[in-house]
Amino acid sequence: xxxxxxxxxxxxxxxxxxxxxxxxxxxxxxxxxxxxxxxxxxxxxxxxxxxxxxxxxxxxxxxxxxxxxxxxxxxxxxxxxxxxxxxxxxxxxxxxxxxxxxxxxxxxxxxxxxxxxxxxxxxxxxxxxxxxxxxxxxxxxxxxxxxxxxxxxxxxxxxxxxxxxxxxxxxxxxxxxxxxxxxxxxxxxxxxxxxxxxxxxxxxxxxxxxxxxxxxxxxxxxxxxxxxxxxxxxxxxxxxxxxxxxxxxxxxxxxxxxxxxxxxxxxxxxxxxxxxxxxxxxxxxxxxxxxxxxx
Amino acid sequence: xxxxxxxxxxxxxxxxxxxxxxxxxxxxxxxxxxxxxxxxxxxxxxxxxxxxxxxxxxxxxxxxxxxxxxxxxxxxxxxxxxxxxxxxxxxxxxxxxxxxxxxxxxxxxxxxxxxxxxxxxxxxxxxxxxxxxxxxxxxxxxxxxxxxxxxxxxxxxxxxxxxxxxxxxxxxxxxxxxxxxxxxxxxxxxxxxxxxxxxxxxxxxxxxxxxxxxxxxxxxxxxxxxxxxxxxxxxxxxxxxxxxxxxxxxxxxxxxxxxxxxxxxxxxxxxxxxxxxxxxxxxxxxxxxxxxxxxxxxxxxxxxxxxxxxxxxxxxxxxxxxxxxxxxxxxxxxxxxxxxxxxxxxxxxxxxxxxxxxxxxxxxxxxxxxxxxxxxxxxxxxxxxxxxxxxxxxxxxxxxxxxxxxxxxxxxxxxxxxxxxxxxxxxxx
Lengths: 295, 429
Prior knowledge:
The structure holds two protein chains of two kinds. By secondary structure, chain A is an all-alpha fold. Chain A contains 13 helices and no strands. Chain B is α/β, with parallel strands linked by helices. Chain B has two domains: 46-145 and 314-354, D-Maltodextrin-Binding Protein, domain 2 (3-Layer(aba) Sandwich), CATH 3.40.190; 150-311 and 371-427, Periplasmic binding protein-like II (D-Maltodextrin-Binding Protein, domain 2). Chain B is 44% helix and 13% strand. The termini of chain B are far apart.
């Protein structure tokens, strides 16, 4: 095809993409570039307009402070465990709700329902469920069974995992729906052939269902990791980053340092480190999935 | 060719629709003209936005007063939750926007950034210096202080009478009271330690009694704000004393998971006998337990005496330097700076005292137990003198949470606060 014809064909698509591209540049590319620029300055609420270049000082300060390393560690733990929890529970749930059950539609709706609510509402609900007071639902059950009260959100060693449980509870239904959609695209011929070969249920799941669920697994695990790395709202709603700093995450520290304390350039530097970290983790994650796919 | 023109036109139309909402004359313009038609005599109302972190109920009488006395001004109240209030307002101010009248966040940094109007000429002579000192920088006034706030220890009068308990005057007497209550299955004190602010204020109550309230302590407090004194040197004994609350089982680790609202439920249901707070919760107590008899005693220390209330000038309202409706905003502030305005604010915030000259309020009966401390002037919020290091108070609260959890020692907590204060002071240079 000659070049003028190619150009004529392509220009239509470019013009249609232009609004989206402009929005993307305005609300993502330009702010990201400016954030990167400001991360090398002393921009703060004390120096809000006239800023000076400070080189890598903000980045060096980030890695010197233990609180930032705590935030990164907490975020990674949250992202990995929440992603694993959601997917490990969602797959068997999807397989179960793909069967011919009379109540399957009702059950699908029931499991999906928590995902409809705002994260802050879920956080508020779980605050009461986890409460160590006499009004706490879970502790009422624990005490009734003869055990000691559990300090879910007040114990620094438990708080982060309590937040993860609440998050997994909210999003497992959403993840299940993605797996359901993929399951319904798997041809039944494979299962019939497997039945003829006298394969057990577990063998069918392992050798047919799981490999063919790869597109959904890729999507859910990658998005789960990315969303986990960005976590803020459920932590804010349940613990506020406490007790102490035991549930502080990258985003909560970025807001604390960058906005509340007015260290805008610190917040910017942390943001850039966060983008790079998420990028690296996503690349590793996708590479691992591709390796599994090839096997 | 025809298709290219069609696609181009679609793209242009999409772009123009997208950018329509970016016009400056959008619906949240602070100035509106209402109901004006030819030959209409309706007054032109100017909208003035006022922001504060307490719910609208806490200023309903004041808002009604504005509505009645200022027919040409429409005061739009913006409630922003305390947890996010500074972040939201500072972000708006940094963008050159924000409400016209702003409650709080008037500090050395925000004044230096030029966010607030100088109110010296118009209002400085009307208010007592004890109230304006925290919002005066370089001898210029930037905020109008409202009724003072304070916190002490509320107690359930009936429970104390039931177990023949006397109001404690020292920390030792407090723990004796606590022991009796615990033996009878009553939690001595409900406290929502999940909030680091609550944890910090609990400690400040004791620290004021044992050190900060002394003349040496007041000097230290000012020096700390300037960066020439350390908290670990001055307050480690007080924080070590505070750990007695943990040793006596009054404050326990599970309270780290308790929200303030849940702690209030424990107090108002009679499961707990005491609760440290201020007048802002009185309406909540009355709604949840209308028949409960409540009184208050001051925060206690080891040395006895009249006790101390943690508190100081209440919220100060400042004027956004970039407000487009300053004339109307000044009318609001003028009315606020009258006995009528002060009484209207106090009607929903009973308990504190006014800083407007010539205005006095009668203390409600629920604060009888704290009268002596008030009369002696034992009301102070040390953080007000910390200047730019004030943000380190959150780190103090979080450190106390770690102390309760057994992760840090008092020395480590206060060292961390000193480090944060140094960082904040360094930044402000």
